[in-house]
Amino acid sequence: MNIKDLKEKPIWQMTGEEFLFLQQNSESKQVQSAATAVTNPQKKYVYGIAGIARLFGCSTPTANRIKQSGKIDKAITQIGRKIIVDAELALELAGRKSGGRK
């Protein structure tokens, strides 16, 4: 069986044997692509005040206070009214303690 021919053939025209052969041979390629996806993590972004609220698990007014405090400014990109926040960086910056009561 030729894999190229089987990929061009519609599923409803395949026999069970052809379908299983195609499925078994395509799994090895998917495992390799999944391994590369794990090594290249993509950045996760949240959008707007509502996204910040979901990220920190707080209310919208509290998320607005977090943004206004300046703690996560390095993670925020704002163009006009659109707010884009790098989630990982924002969580890292919010976790750092600076100042406070002594």
UniProtKB/TrEMBL annotation:
Superkingdom assignment: Bacteria
InterPro entries: DUF3853
Protein name (Swiss-Prot/TrEMBL): DUF3853 family protein
